[in-house]
Amino acid sequence: VLADFEDSETFESFAPKLGLEYELQEDVMGYVTLNRGFKSGGYNVRAQSEIFPESAEPFDDEVLDMAEVGVKSILANGQLVLNAAAFYGDYSDIQVSTFTSYDSNGDGEDDAFFGNFLNAGDATVQGFELEYNYASPTWFGLSGFLAYLDASPDSFLDANNDGFVDTQVISNAPEWTGAIRANVDFPAFGGLITGSVGYHYRDDS
Fold first, then answer.
1. Is residue 190 classed exposed, middle or buried when 0-12, 13-18 and 19+ CB atoms within 10 A define those classes?
2. 8 Å CB contact between 31 and 20
């Protein structure tokens, strides 16, 4: 009963994409893109509308405006695929799930648990990505990628100052990720033997 509320809300978002491509040479293409992505707003299904009435209010869309510039290329007579990109994004009204304990009966002791969902703040995201895939004309190949991400909140993630979010960390946003993989392919016994060995790295997140 404490979470009992009834309401409705309509969310609309304009999310365009604009891209320009240019052939720098026959096997090298440069591009620029501008994108807007969104995650729709909604309601907190765990709302505790008696003690935390604001939890029954709808939260807004989460919006990311992103600019990217990059190059895609096929080099070395088709043996090497090499792609690179740099990006910059403005991240607004980040949706965050938060949890807190509270005193449900007024005896001074926290004896209950509450989960809220809110728009907690804004952030800037920027970085670069490099990926490659080399296949020699014989039996050996090498592939992998390297990516850097700087995701920094523009302020503490607690936009409404309700005390539920006090962090400057963006979840699941490792600063460095990368991988390298060696591949072998050679014919044998009337067929093809393939194998690979690789290493993948993911920074703290």
1. exposed
2. yes
**Bridge partners of residue 49, in order along the sequence:** none
Phi-psi region of 105 (alpha: psi -120 to 50; beta: other; left: phi over 0): alpha
The pLDDT tens digits along the chain (205 residues) read: 566 778 889 998 899 999 999 999 999 999 999 999 999 999 988 888 888 888 888 999 999 999 999 999 999 999 999 999 999 999 998 888 877 788 888 888 888 888 888 888 888 999 999 999 999 888 889 999 999 999 888 876 665 566 556 666 677 889 999 999 999 988 889 898 999 999 999 998 8
What number of other Cβ atoms are within 10 A of residue 59's Cβ? 21
For the chain, state the CA radius of gyration.
24
CA-CA distance, 99 to 93, in Å (whole number)?
Answer: 18
- CB atoms near residue 44 (< 10 Å): 23
Q: How far apart are CA 166 and CA 184, in angstroms?
A: 50
Rounded distance, CA 68 to CA 35, Å? 8
Side chain identity at residue 40, one-letter code: S
Task: Tell me the residue length of the chain.
Answer: 205
* DSSP state string for 24-85: EETTEEEEEEEEEEEE--B--TT--TTT-GGGGSPBPPEEEEEEEEEEEEEETTTTEEEEEE
